[in-house]
Amino acid sequence: MIPSPQPMQEKRSLKERLERLPALCRAVFPALWEFLLFFLTPFIRIFEIPSPFAAALLPAAPVRPGFFSLFGLALSLLLRFLWQIPADLWQYAGCALLWLFLRRKRPSTDIRSALYTLAALLPRTVAACIRGTPWDVILSVAALPMGMLTSFVLHHCFEEWSECYAQPRVRERLGVQLVCLILIAALGFFRIGVVNLGQLLAMITVVLAARTKGSTYGASAGLLCSLVLVMDGHDYRLVLPLCLCGLLSGLRGVAGLAVPLLTTVACLLTGCITPAGRQPIHWLCGLAGGLICLLLPRGAQEKADLYLSGTLPGSAGMENDFVSQRISHMREAVEEIARVLPRPYGGDIRDSEALGALLCSACSNREACWNHTRSSTENMLNHSMELARDGLAINMQALPALKQHGCLRAEAIEETARQAMVTQKKRRYRQRRAEYEQTLTMTHLNAMSGTLAELCALAAGQSVSDLQAAHVILLALDELRIPARLCYARRVDGHLMASLEMNSLLPGRKAIDQLLQYLEENEGLSLFVTRIRHRRIDLEETPVYSAEIGTASMGAGGSSVCGDACMYKTCEGGRLLMMLCDGMGHGEEAHAQSQKTLELLKLLLEAGYNRRQAITAVNGIMLSAYEGEERFTTVDLCDVDLWSGYVCCEKLGACATWVVRGDHLKKVEASSLPLGILEEAKPCHVEYTLHSGDILILMSDGVAEAFRDEEDLKHAILESLYIQPQRMADALLRHALLAGGEQPRDDMTVMILMLLNRQHLP
Asked: Using an 8 Å Cβ cutoff, are 676 and 633 in contact?
């Protein structure tokens, strides 16, 4: 019989074996990590205190200790015997007994974990009290609180580690960072040639921290790692090279081979400037650390970034970049539209062309006049148009050029010139209209481009202060157990803005008030609610100044409807908008026109338009809506910055504004035409600064003209001063009625603002 062929085993290629390597590493690495951790930690001596970290890690570990941890302890003890190092047998005995106990029962709380560590360290302390010197007793006792505190912190950090989300919480990242510092101290006992492994790991950690969060964070990481090594008995001068490496590696633009070069230079430089002339960290250590960071796999770098910054790779960073790119593309598209907008025809029709188009179109001698005698024809037509503009008759006596030219249609030239003038006038009107519409379109496009630029800057990423504020708010939510999620916390122009999403169906106002009170009392962070929509609550940092506003108005002739309209609104960023409009005429129609002007200005300013752009847009809307009718509105717009007290005022036909500071009065006036008259609105711009206790008074012309002169108005203002702005507005309107008669001839409106520093409030 022919035997059946055996299936051939295909040889795996090198590429397939390399592809299986990550899976193999994921299976082997946890066991290897457990072995190395318990092999290294018994060697640590912080300030000569014998290591308590092996006993602290056993109960704090998120999983039950395996045989690799016991094997690591055994190999560590064997190495002590081989290297003739004091064995510290009682430390290993306590850890072994704790290992046996933890195989059956795990600590359920942080306190129990600390007590288990204490029980493991007590045998060494008792042995030192019986057989050791007083100094050994002191060092053994000092290890007790150090081990208990480490176990307490690590157990709290790694609690429910297996059930955590993909993005680690703050305490879990803190636990990983603490274990990394313990490893740096443990590896400081070992060397490969001139390279100290603890210093090498510290160098790698510092460079990764700098590349993740910048120079400041890198220098801080260098200081922390160097302090751990110094406490472990290393040269104190290594603080300088590690901090310098973190500072240089985090500089913008530093990447690739520049990283190992800079770390090497930092180590060489510190060797030159230290008093002993010896390098505290060998230059080979700096070179190796930079190269390792450069050659780390992408997955390892993302893991390091995750535990250093808390941001998931490919989530927040990529999302911000994606949003920024899309906004940037939209902004470029808007700017391109503005660039390619068709420009209106820039030149007017010349007199000769306008008249010749009408006069010569049906003439049989057209070709001869415009080809052979073109110059004399144009000269004659230009003079004819000049006579028509002056209202003079066009004949051969008044215009000798007409007789010399011999025009066949001389009898119709006067009437045709008038028609040409009408044609020119219509052409100029269409040109002005096209220029005006183009200005309006450019205004809207520029406003959109500016808003998109601000959004692109906001979407670029979070700053350190943003992360700090978010951390403070998250801790407060966790402390108060408020069922809410922090959506964002960003500083815009240096002022914090945040948003929460409640997990309940209805936003709990009591819980939000409790949160705001907690943040102000414990963190010094004063916030207030700006908007509540469904479950979304927007918060903003409270400005330095608070504003109290009072208004009073009365219609002309004692009517209940006032043609004036006023409005004030607090906007994002601590801006207060105050607007007062006086529409043409009196009654319902004037009030509707003023109210519509205010509403449009408010909506455009909230949409991101600046003051000039909003005024230009509203002026265009009014001219388009009331085309052919004379409708105008005065505008008095004050933009108050509640952080600095700085006021930007735009006036269009509005009467003077008054600023009261103590017993002194200051008049702020500007002359300009109202809104809705000309196609190009030109407001007068005035700027000034208010201080705590200052009073700002806006009034319509009905109030200002009720007094005989300016002195009477000043006297009435000083007599109307009250602490409450509403009482002051009522009093000033009462004085205006007494001065102008019981029945006012014009609509009267008064707006009073009092600015107060919140720190001076009771």
From this structure: yes
The confidence score (pLDDT) of residue 6 equals: 42
Residue whose tokens read 């692109």:
456
Question: What six digits make up the tokens of 359?
Answer: 């006069």
> Which has more confidence, 655 or 502?
655
184 neighbors 215 (Cβ within 8 angstroms): no
* Angle 728-732-733 from CA coordinates, rounded to 5°: 120
Helices and strands, counts by H and E, the chain: 26, 18
End-to-end CA distance of the chain: 109
Q: Where are the beta strands (DSSP E) in 57-186?
A: none
Q: Strands 545-554 and 748-757, how do they pair?
A: antiparallel
- Among 321-330, 381-390, 501-510, the range scoring the smallest mean pLDDT is 321-330
Per-residue pLDDT tens over the stretch 734-762 = 999 888 776 778 889 999 999 999 876 65
**Burial (CB count within 10 angstroms: exposed 0-12, middle 13-18, buried 19+), residue 599:** middle
pLDDT of residue 323: 62
Taking every pair of C-alpha atoms in the chain, what is the biggest distance, in angstroms?
A: 140
Is residue 124 within 8 A of residue 87, CB to CB? The reply is no
Give the mean pLDDT of the chain.
80
Say what percent of the chain tops pLDDT 70: 83
Cα–Cα distance, 148 to 125 (Å, whole number): 14
Contact 232, 288 (CB under 8 A): no
Per-residue model confidence as pLDDT tens digits over 32-81: 888 888 888 888 888 888 888 888 888 888 778 888 888 888 888 888 88
418: confidence class by pLDDT, cuts 50, 70, 90: confident
Q: Burial code of 396-429, b = ≥16 C-beta within 10 A, e = fewer?
A: eeebebbeebebeebeebeebbeebbeebeeeee
Does the predicted model carry a pTM greater than 0.90?
no
Q: Distance between CA 345 and CA 203 in Å, rounded? A: 68
Which residue matches tokens 């600015």? 755
Q: Which amino acid is at 199?
A: Q
Domains of the chain, earliest start first: 15-163 (no CATH), 194-313 (no CATH), 335-358+373-461 (no CATH), 464-541 (3.30.980), 546-760 (3.60.40.10)
- Give residue 640's pLDDT: 94
The share of the chain scoring above pLDDT 90, in percent, equals 11
Q: How far is it, in rounded angstroms, from Cα 598 to Cα 589?
A: 14
List the one residue out of 282, 292, 269, 270 whose CA is nearest residue 206: 292
Contacts of 396 (CB under 8 A, 6+ apart): 402, 403, 410
Report the C-alpha gap between 492 and 641 in whole angstroms: 14
Nearest Cα neighbor of 174 from 465, 469, 475 is 475
Residues 6+ apart with CB under 8 A from 620: 436, 437, 439, 440, 443, 679
Q: How far apart are CA 222 and CA 217, in angstroms?
A: 9
